[in-house]
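To whoever is covering the structure queue this week,

Two jobs came back overnight. Logging them here so there's a record in the thread.

Job A:
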Amino acid sequence: MTHTRRDLGKLALAALPATALIAADKPDSLFSGVQIGAITYSYRSMPDQSAEAHLKYIVDSGVSAIELMGDPAESYAGRPAQPRRRRRREELTPEQRAEMESARKALKDWRLSVSMDKFKALRKMYNDAGVSIYAVKIMRTDMSDPELEYVFNVAEALGCTHTTLELPTDDAQLKRLGAMAARRKIYAAYHTHAQGSMTAFDRAFELSGGNMANVDLGHYVAGGNVGGTTLKFLQKHHARISSFHLKDRQTPANGAGNLPWGTGDTPIKEILQLVKKSGWKMPGSVELEYQITEGSNPVAEVRKCVEYCRAALA
């Protein structure tokens, strides 16, 4: 039976019991050879942000592979507390700036001295529950080389194939990060927002084989790259994509909104079918950014998105 996008949307938005996507004790979101994962940013509004709580959210969502945000990973490993920055730097008082600088130094010192044992323990805890970690997002371009080495050490301890960060525009940074990634054999995969396009990653790819893409195909559509262009991007660059983000956004002409899956303009089914048909192994990460309706929560909504992917790959 052939499903239209509207049918898939209705299926995805149907209420699901917590066990709907878990056939056994462990989750399995590998559908027809395509690994569906999630970035843990999707659970940012949940009250408990610990690594242990995230694992429950992930398993209850039916997800078996993830891109892990740095906060739960580093907190689990004993990261010193950081003050929450609510205003821009230029709006801070001298005392607040001094507090921020002190906290930043403490964090750097901790990163350069911490053992990897807790990160290895976190990996085991997740793996034992049936969840693998394919990427971690801690890296920033303003990090020193020793701090970058720390990030690659963490990625290695967690079992990641790549780290993710926002796409730099500076050739020097692209060279520096790419060279380190190539040496460590863990890719630096760059994430895009509205700047995503057919050529957005060309310079990064040109400067180093260690540079890869962590393209967001929902933002790609909202940036004006629609329909077949999205599929052409995948066909052209698939060998340089470590993982990709999925969300259902509208085109600029339709308002560029971030909508429940099946109601926007991102060709999610077509994307997943192309990955399946081509046998590409890069995982697709659910990134929950649309407005959650009253009475629901991120776990239930990620679960719906995973079920949408299951139906799309059937």
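Job B:
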Amino acid sequence: MLERLRVLTLNIWNRQGPWEARLPLIQRELATLEPDLVGLQEVLHHDSEPVDQALEIARGAGLSYHVAFASAWHIGGGLQFGNAVLSRFPIVDARSFPLPGEPGEETRGLLYASCDAPCGRVPVFVTHLDWQLNRGWIRERQVASIVEKVRELAPVGEGFPPILMGDFNAEADSDEIRWLRGYTSRLGKNVYFADCFAAAGDGTPGFTYARSNRFAARAREPNRRIDYVFVRGPDRQLRGEPLTARLACTVPTGEVFPSDHYGVYAEIQAAPRPL
């Protein structure tokens, strides 16, 4: 029986910066952490040309991964920008859903993948929300849409607790994240997802978009924790309990960091336990 799931989320910053130098650093981190499930954001994929960043990362990590990609934004000419899941377990179902937004803006999406793990079918959701600092009202609509899809595809009390991860572009005290964490209600509704870093982090602030990263520093934004691994748990068998969490992909080679974001690595209880 699989005792715990190892999960990693990372915004890979598409091909910006020195991608050829960044790619092996991401692959090195995967080889070190050996995550069972990986959520990637800002992934580029082309319909006909050999451009598939999720496959590039998976093939060079030295691990056997199944890959699912979901487009969030059709850039043009067959080039797509979206989210991906890498899974060490077979992906038996994968679907893509658009998220609410404003006309003329970059579109955002949600990727759902059902992964056939030894602990049962694990519902995995990967997303990337609107990035603009003044667009919390759009992110609120986006998380509400995500929660409805999670309810539909992973009903409460049925199966393994769903894992939701990605770049939410919102700090932990923002309305959209407070709602996900059960601290406030929205339109008379409450939800609860455990924030793995808040529940089981290492005591550091956990900034994932940080000035210590030279690629992020150029944006002149404050240090922020905006990337998350959430799980709707634990359930009645204590599956889905966050056990540990920390930052990942933080170590540069020379002046090259793996991405402009740091990742979040978490371990989640997978095997049933007695109360």
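Note for Job B: The mean pLDDT is 95.

Please reply-all if you pick these up so we don't duplicate work.
Q.
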